[in-house]
Amino acid sequence: MAKHPLQQIKQRFGIIGSSPELDRAIDVALQVAPTDLSVLITGESGTGKENFPQIVHQYSRRKHGPYFAINCGSIPEGTIDSELFGHEKGSFTGATGTRKGYFEVADGGTLFLDEVGELPLSTQARLLRILESGEFIKVGSSKVEKSDVRVVAATNLDMVKAVERGKFREDLYYRLNSVPIRIPPLRDRKEDIPLLFRKFTSDCAEKYMMPPITITDDGRELLKSYRWPGNVRQLKNITEQISIIEQERVITAEILQKYLPYNEVGMLPVPVSQRHDSEQRSFANEREILYQVLFDMKKDITDLKQVVNNLMEESGKHPAAYASAPADMHSSLIRQDHSGMTLPVQVDTLPKKIDLDERERSDIQEATEYEESALSISEVEKEMIAKALERHLGKRKLAAADLGISERTLYRKIKEYKLEG
């Protein structure tokens, strides 16, 4: 096989950087391209995984054949089999004609399955069959058809954990993972960050016909020390924001800091304050914050109940021995002991009054109101989804990214909570 200079490959496919891990990923893509082996590309969201299937395709014998990129997470579960494998007329409601799927129209070419970890288990079984035998059956048909397609898949999930949880077929994972390519996150390519920043500023200046921004040394160090959880995509977005908004074209660390969000996991540490260490936490998304709030609320209620129990025990009676009774009840109350027998309890043996101060009564009242008014997880989830859709003017792709879930999962939740329209 002819050797291709790495710099030439990077220029052709818009890849910027010189980290050893990035160079290794490109080299593996070039080595596997002439074969028909399946490739699984892994890496965090925003690292640029979509460039590598194109390298594999362009340097393969299929380069003159069709190339299709499909985001498996954006296709609703009910139609994904039809999208991939096609369907026959009348096979389901709305199937007014026969339709070819991607595996049929991509015959002789390459199919890039992005977010492959989001595929339903039933679709995974169909995919495994076509990978092993080249055969597939359209939805609503009984005829076996053949297709010669090279599959390159990508995911940002931990596939081993997905297999362990039963979310992804083990046999399909090993079939797709014939040749793995890992794309390093941006935080592992610190020396590449200033290069990418300069490229994005230049592109933005050219696109909008404005002077390019430059960055000071302290700003450059801040760029490199930030963890970039959104990787190259986040760096590009922030660079464009600064280019458009800032009147000052020389960007210092102080200016840059205003554009770096600090309320997400992986950010620079928050400056030390007077708060307790347990309060200095960061969270991946709104849902994680919500769960933590509910957890803390439950813990507070439990603690308050324990206070009440202790007060009752100090008064000489265990709270389990009491039952609520009307004020005019006379000589006795009825309770059950551990054997199930009913035993009389004399009212005059019960404490007439538990001596609680005003603060303790207030705390108990608040705990009761908290417990009664606390929303269920599903209600809160519904509210979060509705707010995300409202923030992004109904654009599901942006809302899904905001919530940290796939578009397919968001689509299913919208259906479940009846949030359409």
Description:
Residues 265-285 and 320-354 have low confidence and may be disordered. Strand 10 (332-336) and strand 11 form a beta hairpin. This protein has helices spanning 6-13, 20-32, 51-58, 80-85, 102-105, 121-133, 159-164, 170-176, 193-208, 217-225, 231-245, 253-257, 286-314, 358-373, 377-391, 396-403, 407-417; strands at residues 39-42, 67-71, 110-114, 135-137, 144-146, 150-155, 179-182, 214-215, 250-251, 332-336, 342-346. The radius of gyration is 30 Å and the shape is globular. Among the domains are: 6-184, Rossmann fold (3-Layer(aba) Sandwich), CATH 3.40.50; 187-257, Helicase, Ruva Protein, domain 3 (Orthogonal Bundle), CATH 1.10.8.60; 377-417, Arc Repressor Mutant, subunit A (Orthogonal Bundle). It has 17 helices and 11 strands.
Annotation, overall tally of beta strands: 11
Termini separation:
55 Å
CATH fold category name of the domain at 6-184: Rossmann fold
Write out the strand line-up for the largest beta sheet, numbering strands in chain order. 2-3-6-1-7
Q: What is the percent of helical residues?
A: 40-55%
Main sheet attributes: strand count, strand direction, barrel closure? 5 strands, parallel
Q: CATH class of the domain at 6-184, please?
A: Alpha Beta
The shape, in one word, is globular
Radius of gyration, rounded? Answer: 30 Å
- Give the SSE order as H and E letters: HHEHEHHEHEEEHHEHEHHEHHEEHHHH
Supply the CATH superfamily name of the domain at 6-184. P-loop containing nucleotide triphosphate hydrolases
Q: Determine the mean pLDDT.
A: 81
Q: Which CATH architecture of the domain at 6-184 would you pick? A: 3-Layer(aba) Sandwich
SS-based class: alpha/beta
Helix count from the secondary structure assignment: 17
- Give the percentage of residues in beta strands: 5-15%
